[in-house]
Amino acid sequence: MAFVKDMLRMWAHSWKRFISIAMITLLGVAVLTGIYAGCRDAFRSTDRFFDAQGLHDVQVLSTAGLSNGDIAALRKVNGVAKVQAERSQEVTFDLDGRKSATMQEIGTDGIDQPYLQEGRMPKKAGEIAVTRKFIRDSGKRIGNRLTVTPESASSDTSDTSDTNGADGTNETNGTDEAPSFPTELTIVGVVLDPQNLSNPDGYSAMTSFRSTATTDYTFFAPSDGVTGTLYTSATLLVKGAAAESTFDESYENTVKQVTDRIDGTVKTDRQKARRQELLDAGNKKIADARAEADKKFADAQSQIDANRQQFNQQVDQIVSMQAGAAAAGAAANGANAGAAAAAGATTPQLDETTRETMRETIIAASPELTQAKQQLDQAQSQLNEQKASTEQTLKTKENELKTSIPQVRWYVQDRQSLGGFSALKSDLDSIQSLGNAFPIVFLLVAVMMSLTAMARMVEEDRSLIGTYVGLGYGRLAVASRYLLFALLACLIGGGLGLIAGFLGIPAFLLVVLQGMYVMPGLRLEYDWLYGSLGIALFVVGVLAATIYACVQEMRQTPAALMRPKAPRAGSRILLERIRPVWNRIGFLGKVTARNIFRFKSRLIMTVGGVAGCTALIVCGLAINDTVADLGIKQYRDIYQYDLMVVSDDSDASAMRTKVASDGRVTSSLDVRIESGDLTVAGSGDGDSGKAGSSGSESIQLVAVPEKHLSDLGEMVTLQPVSSGILGTSGVGKTGSLKLDDDGVIVAQSAASALGVKAGSKVRLTNGDGVQATAKVSAVNRNLIGSDVYVSETYYAKLFDSKDAKNTKNSKSSEDSEALTWNAMLAKLSGSDASQTDYAESLEEDSSVMKAVSCAHMADSFKFDLMGAVVALIVALAGGLALVVLFTLANTNVSERVREMATLKVLGFFDREVHHYVNREMMILTVMGVILGLPLGRLVGGMLTMALNMPSLYFEVEVKPLSYVIAAVATMAFALLVQLFVNPVLDRIDPISSLKSVE
């Protein structure tokens, strides 16, 4: 019992050490669990939401649309739980200019169901649900009406086999009909699209420019009123996928098994079958056209034959009349009246030659008969020509049918192809990577500080330990006094750290996340396993340090332990050997130098602890500086143009005329901009339709006119880059990069995320959904956005294929030779404010889809999520620095109580004693700061390189001010600690402190 009481008394006396260990553990556990818990809560809530709304696991698209046969084949794939055929249509409407939307049918099989936020779901034809973004932009409310106009669809699959009938009409009826939606709409609800969780009222880190194939909004309509038997896509749910977290590798593996099966057999078979359906439909059209033409020709021939028969009868009647009259005259001149009577009673018989001669004579003598015969002959000739022409046309159609219908292509995509999903996942993964790295530094500092504190604690009780061991107490029992002390401090600190880690920090992060994404059903959850392991990690580290300290002391005999520890043997330090310097140092300076360098363990612990804390602060500020400079570097340095204007294809000419007439442009470059995807080409050919199989990135595809390739360098700074170390990259000379017809130039932001470099093969998807394998000729320095530059010639080589002619939104073959330059890069005159105002005024013009001022983007670019995490990291690092300095200062004082008492006996005043002690701490702190500043740059570069986020590349930047802030903050913490240490020095009693321990 006395042993326990003494142990508790010892614990109470060492309350400062207890608080230090508890605080370090609290901060470490909070960092270890907090960022992880915040990201995990977001992951779990999003996964639950996706499961509740039935977000598809796989989506199948086709260049020829999908038929009922395709849907039936997908249902038979092993591992597919449910298949939903979807119909959609692109429409336009007037909203401060021409805007576009996708009319999306709400599926009846429970897949991709919109989440109702306000109002009710549409049920009848003409009712729609819209997104919050549309409500915000349009100012409309539930109950308002809206009129839309279907976009003029380009040639679809049913048109490829059109044939001209005999009457010259163009028949376009096919076996499948494209989807059609009502045009008079009523808003009945506001919904959240599960495929895009972006918060319309929050901040978007990347501004994307939409091509003519991308719509501004999505409207959800019920099946009632929707017509058409051709489906635009098929969405699938995979068996067992809902049981896995959509962000885990196990989910990806489950889905990949099904996509591989679809790619393996179903895809190939149905591509051939669908093409055969189109061929059969084309052949049927040709056969129907031939039958109809034959019927019309037969009817026309019958009419001509009837008219000719009537004509011949009329002529024959005249011939007979003339022949009869001639015979009667001859009989009247005869001698025999009986003979005359007999001749008059019979019609004379004429041979064919005579009759034909008389017919021609009669026709030639009559203008009416001559005209009638010519008309009959002309009609017969025209009919014969039509027969020959139609037959030739039909034979040509038969010959051209196989070549006019291209090979059907399927594209099998998973959730990674959804821009909203991949952006959320990348954001959370990047933040979580920071949460996985920083606790390592906290753990190392915790172990170092615990070793320092517990070693001093054991050393202070040296004689008591010897007494207990001499009295027969086991070394383990004696050591348990310190092990339990450290364990209790870790458990209390860890428990408080779990509260902060699973409640405080996640709540803070989720507030920021909810400003970027809409995550219904978000709640904070506790992970017992991860929380327990987090505490256990620090418990093991601290107890290991404590055990080491105990073993170092208790391996001696009780007699040796009960005697005072022998002073360290005197030794010279390196500075003493530099005589010119040493001789010029004062007495107290020499004492300070000896105290600093003779006690190497204290030197290492102090310098290492301060350096670690300083490095954390620098690291956080480095990330902040990097993010803060992204906008300026991108929109001031890389983009040399001041304005980007994007229009619809049909409004491109009007847009250029409008901009030119305003007189603000000093120079410009017409380009074509499309939203597309860049995928790392996997094994096999480039036509593998599976997007995202080896990594995918949304891109802005910029096609440049062949005659103006050299002008691109005047609008965009073209600098080749290569991967570097510590978050740096090798940047080539400005202007040394040229766009040519041998490949594409890929932005550094996309190349870094996908591991692409010059010479790589990538799969590009243009704005029409057509895919092609391209060569990367160079990687260009680019920080925001994922631009891919391609020449007009290389674009045509990539995408002007048969596939392109049959894609839903692709250009017709007649138009494929020339691109429509739907965008303009321009340099403007005037101030930044006037350029921003001009861009805003352009957006009000009906011919302009999007106008962006680089000056405005440079000033307004922010990254709230990263800024919040950086602020959190800097705050925690500052707290750790304060605790570390407090621990080291108190340990330093406790080790040197007799020394301080001696100084007081020798006549030192309290202020002089303060200066004597604090000078050593300040020097050690300065040494730690000097070491921590480059260490922070090193760690910051490594962490920043790990932040692979969509459309962003972090070019590490640490401003001189950040180094100053980190150094000043650490020194300020050291001065603050002095305020706590000085009273301890004042309370040292020289008499009691100098008493012999014996």
Describe the structure.
The protein is of the alpha+beta class and 998 residues long. Helices cover 55% and strands 14% of the residues. It has 28 helices and 25 strands. The strands form six sheets. The protein has a six-stranded mixed β-barrel. The longest helix is centred in the N-terminal third of the chain and has 84 residues, at 249-332. The two termini are 26 Å apart.
Strand element count: 25
Taking the sheet with the most strands, its summary is: 6 strands, mixed, barrel
* Shape call: elongated
Amino-to-carboxy terminus distance? 26 Å
Poorly predicted runs are 153-174, 203-214, 339-345, 683-694, 801-817
Helix content: 55-70%
**Quaternary arrangement of the chains shown?**
single chain
The radius of gyration is: 44 Å
Which class do the helix and strand fractions yield? alpha+beta
Strand content: 5-15%
Average of pLDDT: 80
Q: Enumerate how many helices there are, as a single number.
A: 28
- Strand arrangement, largest sheet? 16-17-23-20-22-21
Keywords:
alpha+beta; 28 helices; 14% strand; elongated; 998 residues; 55% helix; four-stranded antiparallel sheet
